Amino acid sequence: MTVSKGKKAAFNAALEAGKYIKERLGNIKRIDYKGAFNIVTDVDKASEAMILEFLKSDFPDDSYMAEEGGGSEAKKNDRRWYIDPLDGTTNFTHTYPFFCVSIGLEEAGKMILGVVYNPMADELFYAERGLGAFLNDEPIHVSSIAELNNSLLATGFPPDTGNVPNNNMLPFTTLTTMSHGVRRDGSAALDLCFVACGRLEGFWELKLAPWDIAAGSLIVEEAGGRVSDLVNGPLDMPTGHILATNKLIHDEVVGVMQKIDVK
Ligand code: IPD
Ligand code: CA
Ligand code: CA
Question: Do strands 123-128 and 133-135 pair parallel, antiparallel, or not at all (unpaired)?
């Protein structure tokens, strides 16, 4: 399989699922809870089914990790798709118009393709390893701001924020006082794309799932940014602690994380 064939399939899947999600905004038929606050709607599930149908018809031998349980392990090759059919479900449920579809492809343990589509803004972010990052076909690059105190950041919190000890509140308050501010916009995949296109200088979050960060992390790297865990180690998808920046402020943010001993 060439990456370009995967790109076409991922574009079609993301655009069609995004169109569907947008049409269903304000018209949710069913809300369930995975735990106390983690929402899943019928739209998340229908979007996932749609994406899997698109991809699996072209790539039946690949493996699929999908948030709402529709994935499958073919184990016939070393390719795996990571699918978040609706990143920003809480926003979507409240008709807050900031959510996306995120599709990433890994081959031999490396992300090789990332596609993130925001249907409300009609913005399609994508990257192929080694070929740069794009927004609606225009090349994108991270920002050139080099100091944390001139930076705009974003973060996020897990749905069970109140019940866990390592809940990101200390990094949030600390970095808020050291920067132009920290946004909490509710879609990790879009936050990463905003770093990639220079709207944010940095984004971090703890305990994200692989489908939240697979596509966006490649898009940041291909846009010239840096992606690591919170203390500058390699990104570990199963742990899901991520720091993505324009590279220039990376060490400064890592220094803050180390000082406040984020684990
Ligand atoms: C969530 C969003 C949010 C992040 C949460 C994620 P979901 O994904 O990415 O920004 O803070 O940790 O779970 O549930 O809307 O797909
Ligand atoms: Ca998500
Ligand atoms: Ca989701």
Answer: antiparallel
